[in-house]
């Protein structure tokens, strides 16, 4: 039991560190499932304040998400910019550079699901 608790605490710390890309962004890991084989499926909430951005980054697997609150501009390399609002969903292919910026004068909140290679960091900054 103690070992399992330590693993959960270690995962939470690592996930928060991997997701923290710019000051003022709040990321809350909710759950991690070691599935499918060789991958982790991670569910998290990301909140970006008005005028803020997640910062250009990639994931070693797919990201799919749902906008819970506010609006955002989703910039995915090779695709036209998309403006999403609460109730919209999105998908980002594995390894593709992307950014999310809060649109307008309100903060935005998304629920993200990542299916990523478990041997790699959840997120990596991109130029």
UniProtKB/TrEMBL annotation:
**Is Coiled coil there in the keyword field?**
no
Q: Which Gene3D superfamilies match?
A: Jelly Rolls (2.60.120.10)
Q: Where is the signal peptide?
A: 1-20
- Protein's UniProt keywords contain Signal: yes
Q: What are the alphabetically sorted keywords of the record?
A: Signal
**Where are the annotated coiled coils located?**
none
Per the database record, which ranges form the Cupin type-2 domain? 45-114
SUPFAM superfamilies documented for this protein: RmlC-like cupins
Q: Which PANTHER family match?
A: CUPIN DOMAIN PROTEIN (AFU_ORTHOLOGUE AFUA_3G13620)
UniProt-recorded name of the protein: Cupin type-2 domain-containing protein
Q: Which organism is it from?
A: Bradyrhizobium cosmicum
